[in-house]
Structure formats: structure tokens, C-alpha cells
């Protein structure tokens, strides 16, 4: 076998390649309209989706897409705007305003193609009447620190917005809206990707309030007053304005995990997929994965080694301190603690969009020696985990994984090699 890091990197690359917009967009092109074709979009992979769409659409188009700073792509007919993620900014606010303006005044002969990928929730701040950008920023920070699952977060987000929860598609009525969605949501519900700007769901104000209470979120009084009022109600999926619209899932964690498994088998290593929809506290999920890896390494069960153990989904981090990190590096630090000294285990945990948290790494590598190497550098792995400071810990031993922006986003990839 090649070096374990090289092997695990090839697994990550295979997963990302399976979600490449150049391959996936052309398989879901809508019928051409009698009238205009307007392309809109939001998310960390949406600029690359826009570039791919331009290459395969042979009719006239006009469009606007917003993505994260540094995640742009070359387009000739679709304008790309960059804004902040994971905390919204004024550029995102202006992008939301322009997207809503772009789809107004269309007719039933027109077509709106929506290119939606994960990250769109933060990139599309559009506060409800009576609320401000500062309110949306406060909501976003509270959500990120809460440890709530992404589905709960996005149900709350859509109830303080004028663009999420299907409202962007409603603004385009009576034009037909076809949404091409790259899912980063466990379970692949397209209405939850980017808080569903063009795809409504059944989540209610009551659901949002229940999650706020369950996770002890402290939101501004103005936000709570709004969510408690009928003005916060989002459009329902059975609203006639959505009749005739289409939604196509173009890429998902499940497809990418299968591609990763196929790449491992091509290289002579059997692969197993635990799940593509794992959620929960990152450090706890890391501990469970470590227990599985130890069992394989020491007892050759429940899988025979050599084997590659794969999983996907989206864990969460409840912030207890102000360290540097992200859910994948936090998962992996807990994992590294759990496999300390158990030889033959090598792991990579990374976000398929290329960014884990607020730094420039997608995740990190770990093996049986990781904690000992950290200790040699004066780093206490358990203290780093307690302080949400996984980035600092892995940086100290040179084990950060930095592939750069990938142009897609199908959630987290965890790949554990037991030799």
C-alpha cells in the first residue's frame, strides 16, 4: 500500500469527484422555456454549478449566484457574488436583495433554474420586517454554538427570513422554478439545504420555538417576538405558487461514499459504509468511531482487516470555549484520543467543501501516534478537546488536511483505514 495519508487523500478525492458539477448538472437539465431563462443560486458549490450550467446550456441565460469568499468560478453570463460564511455580512444581504429582484416580474413562460448547495443559509441573510442584519448575525452565532442538528437550525433560520423557506421561489411565481440541489443534509431533504430558498417544507414556527427551547438558545427579543407572531409563517409546500416546480438532487453524501468505497476496492482494500446520515455531538461520534476501529484492529470484528470504514453526515459542536476548530477536526481529536497506541489505524475526517470551521483546512489526519506526538510538542489533546481547540492541536503536529475549495459540498467524509 502507498502511504496511508496518500491513500486517504485519494479516497477523499474520489468522493469529491463523484459530486463534480461538471458531471452532475448535465444529467438534470430542464426543458427549455418559451420565455427567458434566469439562473439563480446560493451555496459553497453554487459558483461551480453555475460554471457547469453555462457550458451545457445552449440557450440565452441571465443569472446571479452567491458563494463564499474565495469560492468563485469563471462565468461569462452568470454573475458571481461572494459573501461571508459561516457568519453573514452586508455583501450577503445585498446578494439576497438582488436575487429577489432578479426573479420578480417574470411570466409563466419563463424558467428559473436554482443552483443550491450547502452554505446558502449564511450566504443569504434577508431579515424579516422589523429585524436587522445584526439580528440575523446574532441568530446565526447562537445556532452555531448550540449543538443543534442542521435540520433544527434551518427550521429556525427560515422563520426570520424573507428569502428562505421557499420564499425565493414564491417571489418568482408564476415562472416555473427548477431547483438543482447538492445535498449536505443528513437524509437528503432538499428543503433543508441552504434553508430551502426555493423548496418549502412543513417545518412550522412551533417547531422552531421548540428547538430554541430544547437547545437553550438565547436569541434577541426582537427575533423571539417575530417567531412568536404569524408574520413568521413560511409558505407551505401545498401553496399553489409552487405547483409545477421541480426539485432534482444532483449530488449527495450517499453517492460520494459509494464512490469512495469503490476507489478503496480498486486499490485492493475492502470498504464498508456505516451510514451517510450520522449526526450528533462531534466528540461523541468520534469516540464511537474510535471504539469500532479498536474492535477491528484488536479483535478483527465486526469487519475483517484490512478494511476502510466510511461514514458521512453532519455532526455538531456545542461551543464550550473560543478555540480554533471545526466539527471534523473536533471529531478526529476525540477519535485520536480513543485510538491512542492502537497500531494500524489511520483516519481522515474532512468536509467535502474544503473548509472545516473558520480556518483554511478541510479537516485533519490521525493515527495511533497522534496524541503522543501532540504531547511531545507540549500539547495536551484532552485539554484541546475541552477547549474546542482541535485546529491548534493538529496544526502543532502538521496533520491538518488543506485541499482548498472543492467546488461541491456533500457534507462530511470520515475515512478510517485499519491495516
Automatic annotation (TrEMBL):
InterPro entries, sorted: GK-like_C_sf, GK_N_sf, MOFRL, MOFRL_assoc_dom, MOFRL_protein
Source species, domain of life: Bacteria
Keywords, sorted A to Z: Oxidoreductase, Pyruvate
Organism name: Mesorhizobium plurifarium
One example GO MF annotation: glycerate kinase activity
Lineage start: Bacteria, Pseudomonadati, Pseudomonadota, Alphaproteobacteria, Hyphomicrobiales
PANTHER family membership: GLYCERATE KINASE
GO cellular component: cytoplasm
UniProt-recorded name of the protein: Putative hydroxypyruvate reductase
MOFRL-associated domain segment(s): 8-227
Domain MOFRL: residue ranges: 308-412
Gene symbol of the encoding locus: ttuD
Keyword Transferase: no
Keyword Oxidoreductase in annotation: yes
Amino acid at each position: 500500500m502507498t502511504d496511508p495519508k496518500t491513500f486517504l487523500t485519494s479516497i477523499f478525492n474520489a468522493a469529491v469527484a463523484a459530486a463534480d458539477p461538471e458531471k452532475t448538472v448535465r444529467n438534470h437539465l430542464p426543458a427549455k422555456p418559451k420565455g427567458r431563462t434566469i439562473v439563480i443560486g446560493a451555496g459553497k458549490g453554487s459558483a461551480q454549478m453555475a460554471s457547469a450550467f453555462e457550458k451545457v446550456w445552449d440557450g440565452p441565460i441571465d443569472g446571479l449566484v452567491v458563494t463564499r469568499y474565495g469560492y468563485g468560478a469563471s462565468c461569462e453570463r452568470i454573475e458571481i457574488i461572494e459573501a461571508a460564511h459561516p457568519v453573514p455580512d452586508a455583501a450577503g444581504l445585498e446578494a439576497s436583495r438582488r436575487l429577489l429582484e432578479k426573479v420578480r416580474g417574470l411570466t409563466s413562460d419563463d424558467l428559473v433554474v436554482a443552483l443550491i448547495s450547502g452554505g446558502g443559509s449564511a450566504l443569504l441573510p434577508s431579515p424579516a420586517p422589523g429585524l436587522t442584519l445584526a439580528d440575523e448575525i446574532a441568530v446565526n452565532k447562537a445556532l452555531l454554538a448550540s449543538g443543534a442538528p442542521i435540520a433544527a437550525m434551518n427550521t429556525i433560520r427560515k422563520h426570520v427570513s424573507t428569502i428562505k423557506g421557499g420564499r425565493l421561489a414564491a417571489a418568482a411565481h408564476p415562472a416555473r422554478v427548477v431547483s438543482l440541489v447538492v445535498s449536505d443534509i443528513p437524509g437528503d431533504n432538499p428543503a433543508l439545504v441552504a434553508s430551502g430558498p426555493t423548496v418549502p417544507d412543513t417545518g412550522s414556527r412551533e417547531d422552531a420555538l421548540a428547538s430554541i427551547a430544547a437547545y437553550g438558545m438565547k436569541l434577541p427579543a426582537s427575533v423571539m417576538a417575530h417567531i412568536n407572531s404569524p408574520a413568521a409563517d413560511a409558505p407551505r409546500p401545498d401553496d399553489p405558487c409552487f405547483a409545477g416546480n421541480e426539485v432534482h438532487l444532483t449530488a449527495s453524501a450517499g453517492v460520494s461514499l459509494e464512490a469512495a468505497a469503490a476507489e478503496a476496492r480498486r486499490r485492493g482494500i475492502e470498504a464498508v459504509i456505516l451510514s451517510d446520515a450520522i449526526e450528533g455531538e462531534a466528540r461523541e461520534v468520534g469516540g464511537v468511531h474510535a471504539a469500532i476501529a479498536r474492535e477491528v484492529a484488536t479483535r478483527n470484528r465486526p469487519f475483517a482487516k484490512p478494511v476502510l470504514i466510511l461514514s458521512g453526515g453532519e455532526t455538531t459542536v456545542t461551543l464550550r470555549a473560543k478555540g480554533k476548530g471545526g466539527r471534523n477536526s473536533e471529531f478526529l481529536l476525540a477519535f485520536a484520543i480513543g485510538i491512542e497506541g492502537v497500531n494500524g489505524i489511520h483516519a481522515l475526517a474532512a468536509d467535502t467543501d474544503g473548509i472545516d470551521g473558520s480556518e483554511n483546512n478541510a479537516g485533519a489526519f490521525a493515527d495511533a501516534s497522534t496524541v503522543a506526538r501532540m504531547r511531545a510538542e507540549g500539547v495536551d489533546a484532552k485539554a484541546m478537546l475541552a477547549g474546542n481547540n482541535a485546529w491548534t492541536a493538529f496544526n502543532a503536529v502538521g496533520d491538518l488536511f488543506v485541499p482548498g475549495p472543492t467546488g461541491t459540498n456533500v457534507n462530511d467524509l470520515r475515512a478510517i483505514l485499519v491495516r
